[in-house]
């Protein structure tokens, strides 16, 4: 089976890949790294304003690590997904709290999806 993506479909497609876990920076008790707190997201597709990295580097100093071994999360994944819902899927602002009821009210990551 072959999948054929036409220009019309691609022009209206946003793809989001989210890792469900990261790896610890420091070794844990088993002398290895384990499931960690930080992760990565990739956005692809014609509506995505690509070629950019959006992040704040949390630092690797022992004092900056979460619980002494994890990167601190600097961008809540829901703020990225909320922008896709709002700008690409045209979900009204009033509905975002229904889709993401526990999302912190921080500023949405900007310029992820073209308007």
Layout of secondary structure:
Blueprint: H1 7-10, E1 15-18, E2 22-23, E3 35-36, E4 41-44, H2 77-88, H3 93-99
Antiparallel strand pairs: 1-4, 2-3
What does this structure look like?
- The protein is an alpha+beta fold and 115 residues long.
- The chain has one domain.
- The protein is 20% helix and 10% strand.
- It has a two-stranded antiparallel ribbon.
- It is globular and about 50 Å long.
Number of domains: 1
| Main sheet attributes: strand count, strand direction, barrel closure | 2 strands, antiparallel
How many strand units? 4
Mean pLDDT: 78
- Gyration radius, rounded: 17 Å
Class by alpha and beta content: alpha+beta
Helix content: 10-25%
* Ends apart, CA distance between termini: 34 Å
Compute the number of helices: 3
Stretches with pLDDT under 50, minimum 5 residues: none
Shape: globular
Name the features.
115 residues; alpha+beta; two-stranded antiparallel ribbon; 20% helix
Brief overview, please?
The chain has 115 residues and is an alpha+beta fold. The protein has three helices and four strands.
């Amino acid at each position: 089976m072959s999948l054929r993506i036409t220009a019309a479909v691609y022009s209206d497609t946003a793809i989001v890949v989210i890792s469900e876990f990261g790896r610890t920076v420091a070794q844990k008790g088993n002398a290895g790294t384990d499931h960690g707190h930080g992760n990565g997201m990739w956005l692809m597709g014609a509506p995505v304003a690509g070629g950019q990295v959006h992040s704040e580097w949390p630092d690797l100093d022992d004092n900056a690590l979460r619980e002494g071994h994890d990167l601190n999360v600097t961008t809540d994944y829901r703020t990225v997904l909320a922008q896709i819902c709002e700008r690409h899927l045209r979900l009204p602002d009033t509905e975002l709290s229904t889709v993401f009821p526990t999302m912190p009210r921080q500023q949405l990551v900007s310029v992820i999806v073209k308007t």
